[in-house]
Amino acid sequence: MKRIASIQDISCLGRCSLTVALPLISAMGVECAIVPTAVLSTHTMFQNFTVCDLSDQILPIARHWQDEKVHFDAIYTGYLASAEQIGDVCAFFDMLKSEDTMIFVDPAMADHGKLYAGFGPEFPAEMAKVAARADVLIPNLTEACLLTGAEYKEEYDEAYIKDLLHRLVALGAKKAILTGVSFEAGKVGVMTYDGATGEYFTYFNEKLPVSFHGTGDIFSSVVMGGLMRDLSMEDALKLAVDYTLECIRITDKNETWYGVEFERMIPMLCQRLKDAK
Ligand code: PXL
Fold it and tell me: Is the CB of 111 within 6 Å of ligand 1?
């Protein structure tokens, strides 16, 4: 059985980060060890959320696991709670990455053109240090612009997206996956670029006229799980696009900040993995 470590926060309520990654990656048949970067009462779109920063736990956990000679097939980073944690997360890679460990980085810090509450303007340059270490880097358009200094646009063409992908690879990432890409009304999906082969890949499905919190974490977790279950990158991305769409489709549209009802669609994930055999 494959084993990964996921480094992100616990938002106790609101279906994002570890409360999404842990159940989805487990349901996909992959062990998911966790390194909580902080405990928040909710994600940061709620008002008056509490935060307990766990920066001082990252290196002690890493040292213990190193002593235990734990092997990870991937290390998946998501929301990091502060600029001060970035060095420790990079040290975590150095301590626990083996030759065959995939570094999978979702630079969860922004959406819809804006940084999440609590991050200052210096944060993206810090996150870029983690992004530089990625075998797979999976930002949305806002995060890609903040990481690379590109202008954020809501209207764009394929040349703009290709330029962003090249900039992400120039940061040091081996493969870049841009999420939330849309070239025509009613369709949304991904475009990827592999710096080693120079190949692009795109996949789109229906775009529903609603935006939910936490869907980026669902998307990344399914890609991570799919890759660990030996799906090709293309098949892992198709599964993530299709699964995220179905989760949005079935969810009550009045409660967007509680995230999507991904629990009800877990059988679809298991079925698609079975069909892929
Ligand atoms: O879904 C990304 C995310 C993760 N963790 C926390 C967040 C967010 C998005 O706002 O606030 C704490």
Answer: no
Separation CA 94–CA 105 (nearest Å): 15
What pLDDT is recorded for position 254? 87
Give yes or no for residue 144 CB within 6 A of ligand 1: no
Q: Is 217 in the pocket of ligand 1 (CB under 6 A)?
A: yes
Q: Is the pTM of this model over 0.85?
A: yes
Q: Distance between CA 141 and CA 111 in Å, rounded? A: 8
Closest by Cα among 45, 31, 113, 30 to 79: 45
Index of the ligand 1 atom closest to the CA of residue 20: 1
Q: Which CATH class is domain 3-276?
A: alpha beta
Q: Is residue 256's pLDDT more than 90?
A: no
C-beta of residue 57 within 8 angstroms of C-beta of residue 92: no
Mean pLDDT is lowest, of 5-14, 106-115, 255-264, for 255-264
Q: Domain residues of the chain, as ranges?
A: 3-276
Alpha helices in the chain (DSSP H): 18-27, 55-67, 86-96, 123-131, 141-148, 158-170, 215-228, 233-250, 266-275
- Say what the pLDDT of residue 277 is: 81
> Rounded CA gap, 179 and 199, in Å?
17
Alpha carbon 200 to its chain centroid, in Å, reads: 19
